[in-house]
Amino acid sequence: MKKSELVFIPSPGLSHLIPTVETAKLLLLRDSRLAVTVLLLPPIFKDTNAEIYVKTTSSNPTFSSRLKFIHLPHIQHSNTHFLEYFDVHIPNARREISNLLTKEQNPCLAAVVLDIFCTEFISVAAEFDLPAYLFFTGGAICLGLFQHLVSLRFDHNEDVTRYKNAEVDLPVPYFSLPVPAKVLPAVTVDEAFLPEIYLSHFKRFSEMKGVLINTFYDMEPYTVESLWSDDKTPEIYPVGPVLKVESKCFDEDDDVKKWLDDQPENSVVFLCFGTVSILDEKQVREIAKGLENCGSRFLWSLKKRENSELEREESEYFEGFLERTKGSGRVMGWAPQAAVLAHPAVGGFVSHCGWNSILESVWFGVPMATFPMHAEQQLNAFYLVKVLGMAEVITLDYQMDFTGEKPPESVGWEVIAGAIRRLMTSEGGSGMRRKAEEMGKKAREALVEGGTSYNALTLFIEDVMKNRD
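The structure assignment produced for this chain is given below.
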């Protein structure tokens, strides 16, 4: 039997690593002719959760014989730009791919699948005459926007940095509505991030043989159709939602689960802002005051600042908030997000609008309130609110400042309380909840045999196997 091996090169961050590896596992479950080797770049920051995830996956007997992980060694670099961290690992990736090709083995190497930040690795694939595919961990809307900005910059010689904080709406071919310039990812328009480097990086998307996207057709039908009909975009395969939810559960004796079990159905609003964003003191206080005044039960996953303890934060930030809301709310550190969203008591989700969080919220039919902070999150928030109608607005264009050039933005408690109130009451929440539940049903239908994502994965496998002919 002819067998084929794929090499996946993901970004080391959990939000990229998990959907990439889970997609690889889907491929292995779908076709016994496939094997996968994952080249793991050293983490930018030590991440125990990523280490545990890789170790657990490696030892899973279902995949261990056909799924291998190779850790690339750490390399010192000048750190002049974020993308340099990835590019310096190209020689080591070349060596490992060469080793795989020189072994007389079955399966034989058939393709390389690259992360969005690893597009320069396409040169390695070309050296060995291997097709390269992109695994895009965001939504089709983000891919489409990047394609459009690349075209403006390189096909039309337009200075896209003029859109930074501009009060204009852009017609984007992949969107059914004009896109406000204020929701464009900062790395594409803000000179502080050297957008020319990012756009040059994204330009290489067009050299890929195909793009796997962690989305499903009914989530982004207009954009998917537009990408399919665009002759500048490689073949796209919407194969999502790719999630890992079964292991993100509560312990049996978890105190937070016990508290949730005691709350009425759809009565709790859950707040969680991802693994990267850390709120400043003023914003924490505004959120706390908003929660105290919104009238809803709440569960707040608050990432602690370095060397900080919740008891100290109580005196510095909350000024008695925890004591006053003891009966109606809980504040915790890390939370098993999928398990919380799956709980019947949770009826709303205040989110930073990272794509993985959006997919989890959709999967469990929980409507959202938008509090984007960086990357493409503002674009995602715009899409949720203005196109899908599945979210209330707290803010669409809040931007965390990573440069230290300006004081942090702050969203006032009145805005936060009002949005949560609308999200959780029958007047506002019921319509969005219905839409979220319907989208969750479509997400599940997309993955079963005959569904749109199931079929897209089939087409991808067929294309990979043709590479051996």
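Interim note for the steering committee: Residues 136 and 213 are 5 Å apart (CA to CA). The radius of gyration is 22 Å.
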